Amino acid sequence: MITHLPVSQRIPQPWKNGGGVTREIAVFPNGAGMEDFQWRISMAEVTEPGPFSRFEGVDRHLIVLSGRLRMDMPDGRHVLNAGDGTAFKGETPVEAAPLLPVIDLNVMTRRGHARAEVRHIASGVILPSDLVFLVATKPMIVTANGQRYALQPYDALKFEGLEGEPVSAGDGYLIAF
């Protein structure tokens, strides 16, 4: 089954710490909140310096989709440009500052319940598991199961138990659980 998740249908929500805005792409179980999700995919806007929300027992992947982000962490200072990513534990204290306004992709998994693989794709897709999301960073065409999907930047597709492999042309991130 394939589900199109357009960016235009995402509802802005405050960050857990109230310091910014996030837009949820998908969460499991459906309707789960910040304290009881097993996995969550979202996009956030970082426009002001401040601390990241802390998520005890959660592993995080963060990819800068646009802009430039400085992250101060216990292991040092990291500067991420568009296309750069990092993985860290949700309980890690992080202070961040956008050096240019940032839109980022966040993939969070609760330890012991889920794990995620996040990778950049430019064309062609081989689905590594039964539950995969594809988030477009530029206009993208995906053909799967005889259907053609025209994705706009930040639109997503959810693939569940897909038979055959989709074919894509464009730029995006593949998230497999």
Brief digest:
By secondary structure, the chain is mainly β. Helices cover 0% and strands 60% of the residues. The radius of gyration is 16 Å and the shape is globular.
What brief labels describe this structure?
single chain; 177 residues; mainly beta; Jelly Rolls; 2 domains; eight-stranded antiparallel β-sheet; seven-stranded antiparallel β-sheet; 15 strands; globular
Average pLDDT = 90
Low-confidence blocks of residues: none
Question: How many domains is the backbone divided into?
Answer: 2
CATH architecture of the largest domain: Sandwich
* Class derived from helix and strand content: mainly beta
Shape: globular
Radius of gyration, whole Å: 16 Å
Descriptive notes:
The protein is mainly beta and 177 residues long. The protein has 2 domains: 103 residues, Jelly Rolls (Sandwich); 60 residues, Jelly Rolls (Sandwich). The protein is globular and about 45 Å long. The two termini are 16 Å apart.
